[in-house]
Amino acid sequence: MTKSIFGKFRKLEKKKKLQLVIAVSISVVLLVALPVYAWFTHKRSIALTTKINAPTQLYITAGNKESVANLEMADIDVENGSYKDFVFGIGGADVQQYQIQLAHTTNIPFEYEIYRAKSVSETEKSAEAVVYVSDSDGTFYYDKSGDSPISGKYLNRDGTEILANSTLHEKSYDTYSNVQKNAEALYWQSDGLSVNDAENPFCDYFIIRVKWNKNVQNNKETDMVYLTVQRK
Description:
The protein has 232 residues and is mostly beta strands. The protein contains two helices and 15 strands. The chain has helices at residues 5-9, 169-173, and strands at 19-23, 30-32, 37-40, 47-51, 56-61, 83-93, 97-104, 111-120, 130-134, 138-144, 152-154, 186-190, 193-194, 202-211, 222-231. It has a seven-stranded antiparallel sheet, with no helix packed on it.
């Protein structure tokens, strides 16, 4: 039986440096044809009008609206500070609300928070601004839009532990059962998020914060993190 990508992850060679690799499914690009509605007059069976809405587009970007291929969460040094921030964007058109989903393994007891963010100039940036270097357009800076992360919840967390229970096991591994506990993916889902950018197509920016405590050490473990987005 074909195993999911989380099953294949168990066979990957461990890296020499601590790193966190992010992969985003191409399926995050959604082209959703909205329902077609027809209204009929009372006691008549002929359609008077038919309303067709434009297809929805929704996808994840790196900083500067660049390809998600440039979104990499790496070079995390747990001996330097207690967190590291990375920027990503949600782009699309003809959408009013969406949800972000985060799925990750738990080989390293990291915790994750997602904040709304805004692009700022070099003179406006704070000391905590995320620096994004574009291969073609130079350097960009992103600050959190507020002090509180976006709201959401884990769908399968085992109490207060940074571990997943078995409720969503089949989402990751289908019927395969020989899974080490830290390879069981934790799924977190945001509440509905309204589009902030007034442009169409739009791009809303976010900062994902990877946090750790003093018990986490630099070692050869690797985790996989998946970001997806869907229309609300």
